Amino acid sequence: MRIGLKASQTKNMFEFPKQFGQGDGTEWNPLREGVFEDAAKIKIGVVGVSPGAGATFVASRLAYELARQADGVCYVEASQSPRLSSHSLSLSRIFKEQRFADYFGNWEQGLSAGCRTNLFENVNWVLRNPYEPNLPNAQVSLGGPIRLSAPGAPCGGIPYERIPGRYMVIDMPPLASLSSMDLVVCVIDPLPSSLLAAGETIRSIRENRIKTKRGFAPAMNHPTPCLWVLNKDNPKVSHRELERFMKIKFDFAVPMMNPEEFYRAEYNNMPVFKAIMRPGGEEADARKTAVLETQALVQEIRKLLPIL
Q1: Which of 107, 169, 214, 250 has the least CB density, counted as fewest CB within 10 Å?
Q2: Is residue 5 part of a domain?
């Protein structure tokens, strides 16, 4: 791991006195004590609370920025949308058909993906196959460990342990699986019609006991922490009124960018999560703010999940 504190630096941080449950006062290890649900994986679910909220954009930016500071990052496409991330993120041109690691298809056929990865910008992109005409939908089964599955797949789908990657950024996992995440990022579009459509999703999140305040929640079986990201922010949006209406507190606000940025990225086969980092030109301030906000999001996640 390339981010976080060294083991020598964390010794005192994780050394609990006897009165805090460590009978002999020895070094407290979060993995050994079962703080995280799965010691081998850190799972970050990114959920758009309404269609078109921008979860894929935020998830891809999060994976990209996290991978600039750590190895073992993977982006997992769990969305049921007919729109493929490999197309919207312009990754289908990068991963040619002969070299594409089809995790979902291989598992459905009882095959192993082996050591193959879809590595780009230090991220393993676990995507639905853009070359398969009868494309299976990726989904996460409910109950027990999170599993990525295709219809008819044996054993309920792909166990996440079989996907190479230490830090999993899961794009649009089912709401019922959010309590199994180590952290949840909720993306909100401030358009009034989108807000009205988000009501059911937000209620489901609260019913799943997703904690809406900051804190290291997986410890002591506390609810999963949740960060609220306002996407497509613009001067017409009153943050105070919006927060009062939704009864939440936004942690980050990503500005609305000119749609031409997304058109330019796709027409030039450039992943938008990387394309917005180009300097200068029109809408430079909006792009810069979007980059800074997602970088700040990564830093906040490092605080919430200190194992990173």
Answers
A1: 214
A2: no
Instruction: Write the CATH number for 226.
Output: 3.40.50.300
- Is 184 in contact with 214 (CB distance < 8 Å)? no
Number of folded domains that form the chain: 1
- Domain of 88? 32-304
Evaluate whether residue 143 is within a structural domain.
yes
Buried b / exposed e over 272-298, threshold 16 CB at 10 Å, is bbbbbeeeeeeeeebbeebbebbbebb
- Does residue 246 lie in a domain region? yes
Burial (CB < 10 A; 0-12, 13-18, 19+), residue 106, is middle
Extract the tokens encoding 255: 């500005």
Residue 15: pLDDT band with limits 50, 70, 90: very low
Its pTM stands at: 0.76
Strands (E), the chain: 42-48, 73-77, 119-120, 123-126, 139-140, 147-149, 158-159, 167-171, 183-188, 226-233, 252-255
> What was the pLDDT predicted at 120?
92
Q: How confident is the model at residue 4 (pLDDT cuts 50, 70, 90)?
A: very low
- Look at residue 268 and tell me whether its pLDDT is greater than 70: yes
